[in-house]
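User: I'm new to structure prediction. If I give you an amino acid sequence, what do you actually give back? Let's try with this one:
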Amino acid sequence: MLSEQVLPDMRRMILRWQGLMIVWGRSISNKVLDIGQFYCPGCGQRCGYALRQDQKWGTIYWVPIVSLEKSEPYVECAECHRTYPEAALRHDHASAQQQYDAQRALEGDLSKMLCEVMALMAGEKHSVSPYLCGLVSNAVRRLLRIEMPEDDILAAIAAAPDQPEALLGNVERQAASLTDRGREIVLRAAVVAAPKPLTESSGTLAIEIGRRLGMKPEAIYATLAEFSVR
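Assistant: Good question. You get back a string of structure tokens that encode the predicted 3D arrangement of the chain. For your 230 residues, that looks like this:
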């Protein structure tokens, strides 16, 4: 292990047990597994890299105690700070460029899908608020580790089909390219975008989005329980 940074999660819970106050929360560590040189297709040249992995922890008194979830290892370029799958370390110039083009296309499809479902849940297809743009930008950053400009967010929402079934079909098509954590982020973002408290119709729509993502029922209801009041 070369280095590790622990980022505190602001969500904290104070529990009382037999007169004792227990502070429970969550944090995320960002561990560097390896460093070296690779061909970065974004920079078009060989650059330094860090192989990183995110780890969620349950904390007691801000001390990481319980391992909750690990991300897949990913490569971060030291020059442009773009991220790539670990497989990028094994690619030559031509294959790295091909992978880069495929990844950018995938990121475009997933970011547009996020725009569509969040606007659908927010009811802001034709009048998009700056607040929703901020939520979408944050969700894209969490899911794909890229920045999506506000103009691109507005364009994606404007170009989305008006029929909910068409949007849900796109969710189902994109689900295969997502990890379990990615599916959770998409559903969480959709629920957070909806006006609170959730109505019966918005709750039903959120459940259907989770189903189209291929999530297990218990994972869907856990996400709704945690984020339906935020």
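You can read the tokens as a compact description of the fold. Here is one thing that stands out. Helices lie at 93-122, 130-144, 150-159, 164-175, 180-193, 200-212, 217-227.
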